[in-house]
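S., here's the first fold you wanted:
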Amino acid sequence: GAGGAHTFSTCPKMPKEVKPKKSTKPAPAAKAAGASANALFEKRARNFGIGNDVQPKRDVGRFVRWPKYVRLQRQKSVLLKRLKVPPAINQFTQTLDKNTATEVFKLLNKYKPETTAEKKIRLKAAAAATASADKADKGPKPLTVKYGINHITALIENKKAALVLIAHDVDPIELVVWLPALCRKMGVPYAIVKGKARLGAVVHKKTATALALTSVKKEDQASLNKIVETVNTNYLERYDEIKRHYGGSIMGAKTNARLARLAKIKAREVAAKMG
């Protein structure tokens, strides 16, 4: 109107007519029918938020406070991988293959020394023979596996040992670290096998650092010769090569990833300089 006056319409605006959208979803009748068919086994998604469903079982081994001996043996195994291991110690990782080791233990088990009970029976019989003034024929000395590090050292030095077997997991390693060098010097066949518990079982002990065979029966001679030939190929003849081979220097996944990243950056810089 005149004089700059504004007029406002008091008539309310009519809302726009909203057309119903055509639904592309199938009719819910079918869904309802399916749900009613399986009413007992209704699927309910779990909610693992705070204060809701019980958390699932997870592997928490990484967060466990392990006993000290477990931590020590794990740290030792990691250190042996990371550090540069000298050949004298690294040679104990090169053990006899499974098939040959099976043959070796099959032979050793034929020459097990007598148990404490068997020795008791033998001594009783010998005492009874002495008491009755009957000189029982002792017969030839039985062929058995020899054990005990001092005994085996003496057998090697006198070249009486036909085959020496050394455990790979002796701790402290200094007990046997010099044994391969002595065997090589004396020309005695030797092999490094897994492990001290398995060697100990042959001689009725918990563990044994090394075992030796001096001689065997005629029927087992061919088997011994075959084993000696195999171990000589793997150890005595390769001694100089083994003596030069260092072990360890195996880095972890994180270190390898970091080194790879640095190498990539360096390669990029060289390419930039060249280009």
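And the second, which I think is the more interesting of the pair:
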Amino acid sequence: VMFVLLLHHGPHVLAGEPDYVEKSEPADASLDGQTSKCILQTKMRQSIAQVSQEATNTVVEESESTETLGSVPFGWKALQPMPDPEMYKTKVHGKCLKIFDCENAPIPCDCPDAPTPCEPGTKDTYEFGVSGFPGQITQNGTDIEMTIEGGVVKKCHDHSGHHLCTKHAVAAGPYATTNLLEVKKGDVASYAFKAHKASDNDNYELFAGLYSDKSGLVDYQFHRGDATNWKTFELASPETAQYYVEFMLASYDRSGGCVVGSKINIKDVVACQASPV
């Protein structure tokens, strides 16, 4: 018995998938109403793998499907539940923070279009009041979940700035690093994440960086917000090289109560062609 697999190249509508892709800071290249090209490629590869497994007489070469669909998943190298406040401080220093879910959100000082005077987007310390306060990180297949729960922030009342969405303290939490993977020039590392609403209205803070074995950090996103359903983002590769992606979770004390918490999920971390802008 011979089975034939046909790939339809027309429009794909994937219910429940993210509806936009945001490029690296500070540029805003969102694709309103469009599905990430990486998501389509990943779903097509998964469909091929499922058909190949179920139809034992059908042989689909992995190298052929990868070349055709152009989506290759990253693996996880390290999942670290214990926060490293100094490393987080170093990673986000001088980076442009984008603030979501905040009325009249200020543009922080490290962003190119910041006003004068401006509100600081980063902090002098990202420590908890108790040294060694653990975060949580779990893995389910290629998906991960990172959590900060009920930690008291250090220097809670040492405010920096004046706006509700910038002046309070931040504490760093767990972080995750992928394995190295080749990403070609002009392609991207794509990922999807979901943020859960905290019970006390504190905010998640996420730093996602793409690092090259040749040049170090080449692209990043640095977000703060309340809660969001699945959204997909792309990190651009300026040259063909070996890359890894690092995700670091923190929590902003939006309520001002000195106890912070946040939880996010990350999935579909893949190298693929960039979505059209």
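Why I say that: Confidence is low (pLDDT under 50) at residues 1-34, 51-68. The longest helix spans residues 37-54.

Talk tomorrow,
H.
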